[in-house]
Design brief:
- The protein is α/β, with parallel strands linked by helices and 354 residues long.
- The chain folds into two domains: 141 residues, NAD(P)-binding Rossmann-like Domain (Rossmann fold); 188 residues, Rossmann fold (3-Layer(aba) Sandwich).
- It is 33% helix and 14% strand.
- The chain is built from 13 helices and twelve strands.
- The strands form two sheets. The chain has a seven-stranded parallel sheet with strand order 8-7-6-9-10-11-12, sandwiched between helices. Strands 2-1-3-4-5 form a five-stranded parallel sheet, sandwiched between helices.
- Helix 5 packs across helix 7.
């Protein structure tokens, strides 16, 4: 009798112990073609390899988006497990309709690394770190135009401090709020999917989206890219922000209209922006964001990259999720939790591995 098949469709140098764990669980492990991670149409090759797979596992893929037709072609598929927190390369609505569980990996290394990078970018912009370095190298010293922004509250002159607006109060957004706590700033957040108690526990004031944009000195994005959030920061929303505000995006590029952002920065309608995720990656040479000098801090979608972690914890979590789901149980990191009633009806308790 053949073993159930798992396809590593977007592999990222999985450790031998992870592959051994999958094999020891009774699975056949197949690897996707490296060509799938290069530009081009790889649908036919993927479907040929995935048609009999009961599970898919892999990293984020910009060249192999799993849309409805792709998922419908995976006739035996029960679960997809990602190494990353983001799942916008998968049509999760279609997966839910097809009773396919999608698991993600919001690990501390990933999420907390993004939160730390967010504060680093905020400080770099408000404290003029790059500009001061460049000035000293050019022979200048304490130039008046290179004053920085004081961030926290001050008791001595009753200065209230900045207002930091967080879009998305999941693991990353909450960690950002936690890191800001000692700074004595006002932290507000918008997240219609989070219960009120989460705001209270994070020490964050819940506001609507318009209020957040109008009152924040820093707006930072930490929400997933979905049908509802795509393009949520466009020309209209940018016009609501203070001209002295900064914008940070360490989430997904599709959240922001980059052309509108570039225009706002060029026209002085916004102080500055720090961008780690772009609609098209790598960032095209012709992008207007490249021509804005110090008004933009650019990062190559690497806010979560740490010397001692990167994808390792996510790979381990994904493998554990696959083994749990194929044993007929529900893993602890299901992204599309609305699938669970249908998934349990079709597969729950009926594992394909012991």
């Amino acid at each position: 009798m053949s073993r159930p098949k798992i396809l590593l469709y977007a592999p990222r140098e999985e450790p031998k112990e992870i592959i051994d764990a999958l094999l020891n669980a009774g699975l056949e492990v197949a690897f996707g073609d490296k060509e799938w991670q290069t530009p081009g149409d790889h649908r036919a090759g993927f479907l040929a390899a995935a048609r009999e797979a009961v599970a898919l596992m892999g990293s984020y893929s910009r060249t192999l988006a799993l849309d409805r037709s792709m998922l419908e072609g995976c006739q035996r598929l029960r679960v997809i497990a990602k190494y990353t927190a983001g799942v916008d390369d998968i049509d999760t609505d279609a997966a839910t309709d097809l009773a396919i569980m999608v698991c993600h990996a919001p690990t501390e290394a990933n999420c907390f690394g993004v939160a730390e990078s967010t504060l680093a970018m905020m400080l770099a912009l408000l404290k003029r770190v790059r500009e001061r370095d460049a000035a000293v190298r050019a022979g200048q010293w304490r130039e008046p135009h290179l004053t920085s922004v004081y961030i926290g509250a001050r008791q001595s002159d009753r200065r209230p401090g900045l207002t930091i607006g967080i879009l998305g109060l999941g693991r990353i957004g909450t960690r950002v709020a936690n890191l800001l706590a000692p700074w004595r700033v006002r932290v507000i957040a918008y997240d219609p999917l989070i219960e009120p108690a989460r705001f209270l526990l994070a020490g964050v004031e819940a506001v609507d989206y318009t209020t957040l944009l109008r009152e924040s000195d820093v707006v930072t994005f930490h929400c997933p890219l979905t049908r509802d959030t795509r393009g949520m920061m466009g020309e209209r929303e940018l016009a609501l922000m203070k001209p002295t505000a900064i914008l940070i995006n360490a989430a997904r590029g599709g959240l922001i209209d980059e052309a509108a952002l570039a225009r706002a920065l060029a026209q002085g309608k916004l102080r500055a922006a720090a961008i780690d995720a772009f609609a098209q990656e790598p960032l095209p040479a012709e992008s207007p964001l490249r021509r804005l000098g110090d008004k933009v801090l650019l990062s190559p979608h690497s806010a979560s990259f740490n010397e001692d972690a990167q994808l390792g914890p996510g790979i381990e979590w994904a493998a554990r999720s696959i083994i749990t789901a194929l044993a007929g149980d529900v893993p602890d990191n299901v992204f599309n939790r609305e699938v669970l009633p249908l998934w349990k009806e079709r597969f729950g308790g009926a594992g394909v591995i012991g």
